[in-house]
Amino acid sequence: MKMYSVGLGVTSHCNMNCSFCYSKDKRDNSDIAIGEWKTFFDNNNQSIKDINFGTGENTLLEEWFDLVNYINREYPIIKQALTTNGTLITKIKNDPLKEEVINRAISEIDVSIDYGDEKLHDLFRGCKNAFQNAIATLEYCHENMIQPTVVIMGIDNNLQPDNIKKIFDIARKYEAFVRINFFRPVNSQCDLSPPKFQTILDLLDYISGNEIIVSLSDPLFNAIFTNSKKYEDPSSWSSIRILPNGFIFPSTYLISDNFKLCHISDPDALRNLSENEIIKTIIKKKLPKECTSCSEANRCNGGTIDRRYLWYNSLSERDPYCPIRQNKPVQLRSYKINNSGFSSVHDGYLPTLFFKPKGKNIVS
User: What phi and psi, each to the nearest 5 degrees, are found at residue 53?
Assistant: First the structure.
């Protein structure tokens, strides 16, 4: 039976006002009840490898803790992870029952920190005390032996060496990994731009010289920067995204109506997913004509699915970050990868980049 890494959010609510939020336009407050989520897991647990709770701030919903507890009790083989803006700490610090659920059922926690400077981070997130709560959550994870990761939404401004150094210093203190997601232009109201290709090159040069590259689980960057194993784009093939209204999509970033696959109310939602016509189109994608003579075509497969759709609305176009588009050679760098002892729900769940601070022997 096919197994999926599932990213889901059970609430459309969030206490922050991030202009870059990829799901803001799609969180319409038509959240389904926790009982429906439990039924979904009852019906589909054998098709679920692991879960990451994201999309909205799940910890704001009291019933979310009950759902986490239910999944852990009924289906303990399913690994559960959480991405939080730091609000988690405010919900568990004076609530022993919720704290016990987190310590028992959540195996890793990603904490969003985009700037190593408190004022800049709070401004970027549109929320006072966002930075303080994020740091407190990292401290809690460190003290309670829950594997933390600092996750950054990367744009040109915050991927500069001065900020990246501050982020890694924070991660070093709390023995956290660092994960970077490059901004995607999903939210039509956002005036931010994705990072430039040169910014990404400079970022990886800086990190490779000062910290440790753990995993580039992005098919394009893995192909052109490493000699590591091939990474398939997991979108719809091995991972899916479910929004708080219960609709299932093939990717974290492909959540427009034309990518709506089905609803969790279908008892066989995941068992029948591979037969969905939208997924068949994505999985059976053809290599763009421009890629056929490329030496890395077999490893890259044209690049990342969501970027190709979001930039060009087509899979016949190659990845916008393809070095040939930048008039550069295909094999630009050969970075050393050190992933000894590393595992994460996010590695292979979506195209992302993992790093580790030097000087800390982090084992996930």
Answer: -85, 115
pLDDT attached to residue 363? 57
Q: Calculate the alpha carbon distances from 162 to 15, 113, 116, 182 in Å.
A: 28, 15, 9, 18
Q: Are strands 352-356 and 212-217 parallel, antiparallel or unpaired?
A: antiparallel
- Prediction pTM value: 0.94
- Identity at 115, one-letter amino acid code: Y
Rounded to 10°, the helix 161-173/197-210 angle is 40
Three-state SS for 284? Answer: coil
Q: What distance in Å separates the CA atoms of residue 235 and residue 114, rounded to the nearest whole number?
A: 25
Buried b vs exposed e over 225-239: b needs ≥16 C-beta within 10 Å? bbebeebebbbbbeb
Amino acid symbol at 304: T
3-class SS of residue 182: strand
What DSSP state is assigned to residue 53? Answer: E
Through-space distance between the first and last CA atoms of the chain, rounded to whole angstroms:
27
Helix runs in the chain, H state only: 34-44, 62-74, 88-92, 96-105, 118-125, 130-143, 161-173, 197-210, 219-225, 277-283, 297-300, 305-312
Q: What is the mean pLDDT of each run of 10 residues along the chain (364 residues)?
A: 91 84 65 96 96 93 97 98 97 96 97 98 94 98 96 97 98 97 82 93 96 94 88 85 95 91 94 88 81 90 93 93 88 86 86 90 61
Q: How many CA atoms lie within 13 A of 279 on its CB side?
A: 21
What are the C-alpha distances in Å from 15 to residues 117, 127, 286?
Answer: 20, 7, 42
Selection from 89, 34, 72, 31 nearest residue 55 by Cα: 31
d(CA 217, CA 240): 16
How many whole angstroms separate alpha carbon 85 and alpha carbon 149? 12
pLDDT at 326: 85
Please provide the size of the chain in residues: 364
CA distances from 316 to 286, 320, 342 (A): 7, 12, 34
Q: Which residues contact 69 (CB under 8 A, 6 or more apart)?
A: 101, 105
Query: In 3-state terms, what secondary structure has residue 88?
Result: helix
Query: How far is residue 102's CA from residue 112's CA, in Å, rounded to a whole number?
Result: 18
Q: Is residue 174 within 8 Å of residue 148, measured between CB atoms?
A: yes
